[in-house]
């Protein structure tokens, strides 16, 4: 069985590698149908994954429905995380974390997830129109009512995390973090360590790039989120190939894959970090799970850091408008 980790100082224990469910039917072009998604999620449970991440806005709603149906037979064995705070209005995403909206969202998520309690409930993005203290206070009430067990923030800035944590202890912060997006190391990771909060990195494989399966000639359909990401232009993909080459070099020495090295690197950073790679393929799921058994030595970690220090990753990770919603 897979190793377990605790998120920060909380008692929330999860598999060392989780499963990001978004891509099953949302944001990417190679999505699965309902039964294929359910089968893959259940295969993950059978292979030791206990931590599954979804959100109200994925679909919207349909991703939670998939997760709820797939995991219902295993509910006592798994930890389900979902998110509130992004709504779809007039075909546009808007932030909404007003207390009444949170309460409406939690009821909908509970129903779709076929459960009576949400294990980990994140604010998906910070709502600048609603003080974080009001959000935390609402969450505190929902915890008291037994509707959620733990809460977290996604892509929030350090000061927001501190203010939220002062009202109701935060169990985890979700943030993009990988070998090609290391900004959380500057301020977020030290703050989380100080406060005893876990980190849950999404896109730990660089939206697929760090697996080595995306060439500079890759084309993305309009329905694929990567089609609007600056880091996935042909020029950026070509310039950033050095990262994949580095991972493959280490992987060859460890008899592993590039993806496994990328994940094991994250696991080696802190014991309270739990990445949540997503996939639509059973073979990739098994590959990702295998990363938990790979241990990078201090010398190997140092050589990776030294190599990365010599170069600059090309391209922004988000279009400007989406980046503005983060780090608040």
Overall description:
- This protein has 328 residues and is α/β, with parallel strands linked by helices.
- It has helices spanning 34-46, 62-71, 99-112, 132-144, 158-167, 188-195, 234-239, 241-254, 258-269, 282-290, 298-309, 320-323; strands at 4-6, 13-15, 19-20, 51-53, 79-84, 86-89, 92-95, 118-123, 148-154, 172-176, 198-202.
- The strands form 3 sheets. The protein has a 7-stranded parallel β-sheet with strand order 3-4-5-8-9-10-11, covered by helices on one side. A two-stranded antiparallel ribbon has the order 1-2. The protein has a two-stranded antiparallel ribbon with strand order 6-7.
- The longest helix is centred in the first third of the chain and has 14 residues, at 99-112.
- It is globular, with a radius of gyration of 19 Å.
- The termini are far apart.
